[in-house]
TrEMBL record:
It comes from the Bacteria. Keywords: Glycosyltransferase, Transferase. This is Phosphoribosyltransferase. It catalyses: IMP + diphosphate = hypoxanthine + 5-phospho-alpha-D-ribose 1-diphosphate; GMP + diphosphate = guanine + 5-phospho-alpha-D-ribose 1-diphosphate. It comes from Hyphococcus aureus.
Amino acid sequence: MRTLFTEDEIAQRIDAMAAEMARDLPKDFLLAPVLTGAFIFAADLLRALYRHGADPHVDFVQLSSYGGARASSGVVTLLKDFSVDIKGRTVLLVDDVLDTGRSLHFGKGMIEDRGAKDVKLCVFVKKLTGHAEDLKCDYIGFEAQADDFLVGYGMDDDGRKRGLPLLGSAN
Ligand SMILES: O=P(O)(O)OC[C@H]1O[C@H](OP(=O)(O)OP(=O)(O)O)[C@H](O)[C@@H]1O
Ligand SMILES: Nc1nc2[nH]cnc2c(=O)[nH]1
């Protein structure tokens, strides 16, 4: 396992992202983390937002397309929908990694279908796969190479390594 970004680097970057969001987003926005992978990032981001004066509502969705594999199945399955009505809201959809872009594309479509006023996309790390160029992310924490299989900071390798506090590459 190779370290890509340390705990300190992650904390600093999240603080800077939160400062930008607290400045730019409306006061009543909804933070929507995509389970499972984004739960660690979302928890740190939420607390950084609070330190910067933003106090959003939070509601989770759960999507799955990889299962235990290192390649996308190609099909995104909705495992958990929003628990609240998002009609008319500004929603910040938060995911851990952008790879093929299928998950965020699916999530963004869901939010638009449910009548949100605005949807912003935030990803902890964008892989430079070139597959997701038409999906505009408003907030990107880090970039990684297309051939890195990312682990840690919420990201799993067949269900393990989500608790690793840094971002690593398994290959
Ligand atoms: O851009 P994509 O190719 O869609 O890949 C990104 C998605 O892959 C992972 O989800 P996964 O399906 O592995 O579920 P998990 O979050 O439960 O691990 C990750 O959490 C992202 O949601
Ligand atoms: N854990 C993990 N999940 C992913 N989903 C899409 N790309 C990745 C990756 O590099 N690592």
